[in-house]
Amino acid sequence: PTESGFTMDVLALYDWAKARSGNSSILLWGHSLGTGIATNAARKLQEERGVQVDAVVLEAPYTNIREAAAHIPITTIYRQFPGFGYLILDSLALGNMFFRSDENVKVLACPLLILHAEDDDVVPPHLGRKLFETARSAYKDKSKVKFITFPKKLGLGHDYISFNPELPVLVK
């Protein structure tokens, strides 16, 4: 799998859904790694086709894959070793894996909703907050960018925001 391959897959899925949706809204929803794919697809649709998706929802997002890899807890022990940047972080770039959501959100104009649980132990919540701040700074219409955090006491972590019974109302 490649970043461009993932993005092409989402664009094909978007085309398929759009052809069958009538006047229904279509939004791109990405979770974790999928948040980079969702912003890539939304940006490509906007810049290359002149199409704006109805909304983008990012669940447990990061700014870009390099920063995510540098901050995910599993890499804590490895960060202290010489060569961590070269062997781990630079290898992502050598594989054309960038997932630059921070750059993508700067050019989007569609509604953007960012969801992050405070107890996410995979993608640190500060990366979601940083992405929100980047988007909010870039968007002309600041009301189109929202950030919702879920308190630790809910125990939603990295994978269970979608289990929150209030989510449909929050998204709507």
Q: Note the gap between the termini.
A: 32 Å
Q: What is the number of domains?
A: 1
Give the total of beta strands. 4
Q: Round the Cα radius of gyration to an integer and report it.
A: 16 Å
Largest sheet: 4 strands, parallel
Return the string of H and E elements: HEHEHHHHEHEH
The CATH architecture designation is 3-Layer(aba) Sandwich
What's the CATH topology label? Rossmann fold
What is the C-level CATH assignment? Alpha Beta
For this entry, what is the oligomeric state of its chains?
single chain
Assess the beta-strand content as a share of residues.
Answer: 5-15%
Helix/sheet category? alpha/beta
Tell me what you see in this structure:
GO terms for molecular function: monoacylglycerol lipase activity; phosphatidylcholine lysophospholipase activity. Residues 6-69 form the Serine aminopeptidase S33 domain. The chain is α/β, with parallel strands linked by helices. It has one domain: Rossmann fold, CATH 3.40.50.1820. The chain is 47% helix and 13% strand. The protein has helices at 3-20, 33-49, 65-71, 76-79, 84-94, 101-104, 125-138, 167-171, and strands at residues 27-31, 55-59, 112-117, 145-150. Strands 1-2-3-4 form a four-stranded parallel beta sheet, covered by helices on one side. Strand 1 (27-31), helix 2 (33-49) and strand 2 (55-59) form a beta-alpha-beta unit. Helix 1 crosses helix 2 and helix 3 packs antiparallel against helix 5 (84-94). The longest helix has 18 residues, at 3-20. The two termini are 32 Å apart. The mean pLDDT is 93.
